[in-house]
Amino acid sequence: MNDAVMSLNSIIDVNFLLINRIVVLTVTLIFFLSVMLIRKNHGQETGSSITAPIKLALFGMLLLVIEVALEGIPSYRSMLAGIQTIVVLLCVAKLAMYLIVDVYLRLHLNGDIPSLLRDAVRLVVYLTVCILSLSLVFKIDLSTIVTTTTVITATIAFAMQSTLTNAMSGFCIQTDRLLSRGNWISIEEKNIFGEIVNVGFRHTTLRRMNNTLLLVPNSLIMQSAVSCHGNSESASKPDVANEVMLGYDMPPVRARQLLLDVLGGEPLVMKQPAPLVRLKEFSDSGIIYRMVYRIDDPARMYEVQDRLFSRLWYAVTRDGFSFPFPHRQIISGESSQPFVFPVEQIFRELRQFDIFSMLDDGVVKDMATHTPVRVFGPGEVVVRQGDAGSSLYLVLKGELEVDVDGNQVGSIHQDSFFGEMSLLTGEPRQATVRSVCEVWLAEITREMLEPLLRANPELLEKISTVLATRRERSEQLARNSGGIQGRTGVRDDYLQRLRNFFRL
Fold first, then answer.
1. Distance of alpha carbon 203 from its chain centroid, rounded?
2. What is the rounded distance in angstroms from the CA atom of residue 115 to the CA atom of residue 127?
3. Cα dihedral sign for 186, 187, 191, 196?
4. Which residues contact 134 (CB under 8 A, 6 or more apart)?
5. Alpha-helical runs (H) found in 179-267
6. For 436, phi and psi rounded to 5 degrees?
7. Residue 139 backbone class (left: φ over 0; alpha: ψ -120 to 50; beta: rest)
8. Which residues 6+ apart lie within 8 Å of 2 measured at CB?
9. Which candidate, 290, 339, 346, 334, places its Cα nearest to that of 319?
10. Helix runs in 176-286, H state only
11. How far does CA 482 lie from the centroid of its chain?
């Protein structure tokens, strides 16, 4: 009687285990087939994470059929049952990993799952399957294995010391918000600068400015001084510091103002907080200045530096100075003009200008010979609205844009001129003029014009007429509203202002 009861219980246990395996295999197969169909309907690819569980479940069902067919051979059935148990555990592992990584974590991390977290989940799941397989299939006492393999474990741990260090460093990096993906970091002693795109067990992947991927060991990041630059969405923007060396012949006050003007002309440099320029060091070849500013996006740092240094070269050279470098130089007292333009072309430009059309060729030729040429790089401000000015510019080459109150209102092309109001009446600049490309400008100053007016008083009448005409045109007055009489009144007003300004 007892043997019959035990046999019945054994049959029930076997059937129960068989039913459990069937349920697990069926659920796994139906779930991943559904996922595959959904992804195909949305035009998405199905990777091995979906196809592998389907093949594994089908293989388990095949083993199940073979096991039932070999019911009369207990030895084979026992072996197949063990293999099938391992297959079922692997199916459970695949199902668990997909639900945790591809469903739960993807929803909570907005589809951006770090490889370190994905690998950690896989390690835990497969380690659990391995422990269950040893216990359920091979009937191995795990406590005995742990006790007898202590020395082996210590040896393996010592041999994998570097790998374990990188793995632990990877966990530390993953939990640090300053080192989260999308942020830009730099390691100065290694000349490393890039965006964090992934954190793995062994290394952190950085995307450099040239779009190449750099694999940095996690331990190097944890053991080095790392500068965190954030990203375009960071609330707090770090300072960017660039150093530049200028000559001892340039006064520090002038150098500091020149550098601030260059920083102020760059649209990507944040206005608040205001950029700073500090004198850092007196070196053997020159004075080192430090420019400190902030930009919104660290990814455009090199782009901003390129434009700043390019405009700085134009600004320094335009003022008659140069950048120092270690060399032997014989210095003479003669000053050289850094930018030379054909005098004949300057002469032709002056001849086309209404104000100088009545002068003799000799006078205009002498004026063209002594007219300085100013060269501005792309994006530089030539004159700023509201600033005082006493010079007129003839455009020898290039193009400029005109802004009034921050709005672009026009452009100035080659063979044109601007700034005559400030030159002839001393009025503040009425607009901001900025170079679109490299421009060459001939500058007519008050000091150059005053002797001509004293020698040719009739120029005052001509100039006042030109100013009145340009004012009427710029204000777009209808001729029938003001007529010639209105323009004559404006001309007389300018004539009186000219006489007062030049003390004639």
1. 23
2. 18
3. negative
4. 140, 142, 145
5. 218-223, 252-264
6. -85, -40
7. left
8. none
9. 339
10. 218-223, 252-264
11. 54
Task: List, for residues 256-310, the tens digit of each pLDDT value.
Answer: 999 999 999 898 999 988 999 999 999 888 999 999 999 988 888 889 999 999 9
Between β-strands 287-293 and 213-217, what pairing exists: parallel, antiparallel or unpaired? Answer: unpaired
Per-residue model confidence as pLDDT tens digits over 376-412: 988 899 999 888 888 888 898 899 999 988 888 889 9
For residue 418, give the 3-state DSSP assignment: strand
Q: Residue 424: exposed, middle, or buried by beta-carbon count in 10 A (0-12, 13-18, 19+)?
A: buried
The residue among 354 and 369 whose pLDDT is bigger is 369
Is residue 501 within 8 Å of residue 425, measured between CB atoms? Answer: yes
DSSP H helices, 99-160, are: 106-108, 115-136, 142-148, 150-159
Q: Report the alpha-carbon distance of residue 446 to residue 388 in Å, rounded.
A: 13
The secondary element (H helix, E strand) that includes residue 224 is: none
Q: Is 300 exposed, middle or buried (0-12, 13-18, 19+ CB in 10 A)?
A: middle
Q: Tokens for 277, please give them.
A: 């320029």
Token pair of 406 as six digits: 């921050």
Structure tokens at 430: 């009425």
Using CA atoms, how far apart are residues 458 and 356, in angstroms rounded to an integer? 11
Q: What domains can you pick out in the chain, each with its CATH number?
A: 2-148 (no CATH), 163-230 (2.30.30.60), 240-318 (3.30.70.100), 343-502 (2.60.120.10)
The more confident residue out of 465 and 451 is: 451
**Can you tell me whether residue 392 is helix, strand or coil?**
strand
